[in-house]
Predict the structure.
Amino acid sequence: MTDDTRDIENALRELRPRALSPALNAAIARGMADVKETKRNTIIPFLAWTTPIAAAAAVAWTVLSPTDTSSTQALPGLRLVRAEQAPTEIALLEPVKLDDGTFARPMRMRWSNAAQYRDVQAGAELIRYAPHDEIIGLVPIETY
């Protein structure tokens, strides 16, 4: 260590923050109590009833969604050779201000499906690529 940095470090060690005044401490405590009560009374009940609904909707969507057989019915001479689904990418977007004054982050989900079909008689191949990009929900942000 050089003398220049040693002098700066010694000067910084001697600095101490000033104590807050009792009036400021009381005002901060009152303000935090009000914020905690209002946020806790709105966010927790909201999550308590929306989480099971979202889970049930996801299960219902997965179980009840029809499979896409239109491409195989329209092209009866083709047979499926390969099918793949890219890993799902989930991203939180920039916060937005909602109508009630609260903030939330939109959540975007991206994935893609690809299927390769082959006509063995003609030797032709068909690759069907289907990208998906959906906003799937809003994540509430607590601001104080």
Notes: Residues 6 and 12 are 10 Å apart (CA to CA).
